[in-house]
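Researcher: Next entry in the queue.
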Amino acid sequence: MNNRRRIIGVVASAKMAKTVVVEVTRTFRHPVYRKVVHSSKRFKAHDEIGCQVGDEVRLVESKPLSRDKRWVVESIVKRETRTADEGVADLKAEE
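Model: Structure for this entry, 95 residues:
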């Protein structure tokens, strides 16, 4: 195994060709106020697998592929399951 960083996040957008936007959220306790803080960051990643919005994916660090892309989708951890009712609702919303 190599020493590249790996992070897990959820696909937020898959509208670009071979590129997905992955949102990585982390939860930590504030060092001074001891309150639980939720922060999120969005990364653009190269996608050869064919991810869809809502999929949980593992990203691996890579060389710069474009101005914004520095990550590659390594694998899909969990697929987004869509029911038939949601698909019909999405089609009606688009019309």
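Model: Helices lie at 84-94.
Researcher: Noted, moving on.
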